[in-house]
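Project standup — Tuesday

K.O.: blocked on the structure for the chain from last sprint. Re-posting the sequence here as requested.
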Amino acid sequence: MDEKLQFEIPAHPSSQWLKENTEIVDATVWSTTTPAHCYSTKLTGPFNEFFGKEVRLVYKPPFDDKPRPLVSNGARKVLGRDAKTCFPDLMPVLVGTEESIKELNGRLKAAENDADFDDISVTRFRPNILVRGTKAWDEDRWKTLRIGSATESSSLSKILGMDGGLKLDVTQRCARCHVPNVDPETGEEHKRQPWDTLMKYRRVDEGITYKPCFGMVCVPRGAGGTVEVGMKLEITEVTEGHRYIAGF
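H.V.: unblocked you, prediction finished:
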């Protein structure tokens, strides 16, 4: 198929738009089934020709009356409260750092014995939030985070009990599969990297020793909030006790 595959759908569809262009279906994410909006094939039909089989595109609003309860480290008995998500297979938010991807790229060049080996983009690991200004892999110890405006007077606001911001509980490290070997821009998969290199030094979690880790998965507290480029991230608590709990 030589033509560029494209179609347009609203990023934040209204209830009326969803009613007119979708139908409710059951979507299964690992072992959990959840209701979702399935887009009309009038919009997504070109997918079938591109993939050579019938595929459907489904959507779940961020505020849904039938969310998926969290499992694994996000289960109530571990997290200490009820929490939910929509389609992410583990937790709602993934945090990564610029220094960690930079450090990994240095190792990849050495492993391939090629100074011209192209850096891989952090988009291969799909973090929702990318943090600048830390040391590589410091995030392994993060337990609670707060994200707010860079201009906030945080000390005063805390004294007044008005610190606000988006608060995140870091539940565990993100164990990785082979997907980061695929260049998201071209769809081409490297036979070795970064998987081979990560396996040599990033099997750092006793709860899932057969997979390497990159990034930390998190659960927002309360109703969540807005995250914008340039906001300040504060590490409010650290731990040496992170341990991945299987739960799919």
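K.O.: great, moving the ticket to review. DSSP finds seven helices and eleven strands in the chain. Residues 98-111 form the longest helix (14 residues).
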